[in-house]
Amino acid sequence: MTQNKVNDNVTLITAGSVSGLFSATITYPFEFLKTGLQLHRNVVAAKPFEVLGYQVRTYFAGCSAVNIGVVMKTSLRFLAFDKASEWLRPPALAKDAPLSGVQLLMAGALTGTMESLCIIPFENVKVAMIQNSLLSHERLNTTTSNVQGQVANEVKKTFHKKPTLRSSYEALFPEKLPTNVLTTAAELYRQHGLRAYFKGTMPTLMRQVGNSVVRFTTFTMLKQFAPKEYQNNEYFATLLGLISSCAVVGATQPLDVIKTRMQAKDSVLLYRNSINCAYRIFVEEGFAMLWKGWLPRLMKVGLSGSVSFGIYQYTENMIALMRQERYLE
């Protein structure tokens, strides 16, 4: 590998990591709100989780797990898309020539697959941390026996086998609930072993592939139609990132709801698999439930996408300028 190739890879990884970590942190309260709304089952008659009115720090429950995963995911995202595009580009095309629509879709799908493999364990820890935080607040106003009764009534429905002792409510939600990333990860391992980190793999994979396909296809196609003077402009990249992120929410929201439900700690009590989860949501809670949490997700994904693409373009331009001025030699 040439020195220029190494420098290009470092540029992609640095730009992706900086933009991903920054955007994930400032938009995390929207992620908390979205996940809290999606975790509540409309068939439960009891008072739902309250997701407003908490202390500020509560809205960052699970942020540490997300940040670990997002640095890995985002630093890989741009590098993976660049490599996939390079691999899919026909030899007859020039290096900077735009890819066709089919090639863009394939590059986005490959990028989404790689992202999913990185974030699935951290997403499971994040959902558990949010659920523990929400339940800790709910227990202040609801007795443990009532909450147990809600879950017991849900399990009595058809669609699912009787839970084993290891996956009973008491085992999943002990009296003292962990709230930091290490203790929550350890709790998940004690409850279900390594498979606890890979719940919801299929909907997460489908969502991430959908995210990347829609995001990068929309972003790249819009950028190709832009005037040449805007190609490397960070403000224009921010606008395109916002538009492409809005398209992502419109296309993948039901998958996001199913993913959250399957990664919940009590999913083992309620659902056999992702298809069973989607069916129960549709039959018992209605089609609208598949779009629960779309507004905070739109705000989160729209803001994070625009910031991510904008900072990525700015960082890439800055590193390119530093290299041009020979500061990196």
Automatic annotation (TrEMBL):
PROSITE patterns xrefs: SOLCAR
Single GO BP term: mitochondrial citrate transmembrane transport
UniProt entry tagged with the keyword Oxidoreductase: no
Record localization: Mitochondrion membrane
GO cellular component assignments: mitochondrial membrane
UniProt topology in membrane: Multi-pass membrane protein
Solcar repeat residue intervals: 7-87, 99-225, 232-318
InterPro entries: MCP_dom_sf, MCP_transmembrane, TXTP-like
GO molecular function, one term: citrate secondary active transmembrane transporter activity
Alphabetic keyword roster: Membrane, Mitochondrion, Repeat, Transmembrane, Transmembrane helix, Transport
Keyword field contains Transport: yes
Family (UniProt): Belongs to the mitochondrial carrier (TC 2.A.29) family.
Name of the protein in question: Mitochondrial carrier
Origin species: Candida glabrata (strain ATCC 2001 / BCRC 20586 / JCM 3761 / NBRC 0622 / NRRL Y-65 / CBS 138) (Yeast)
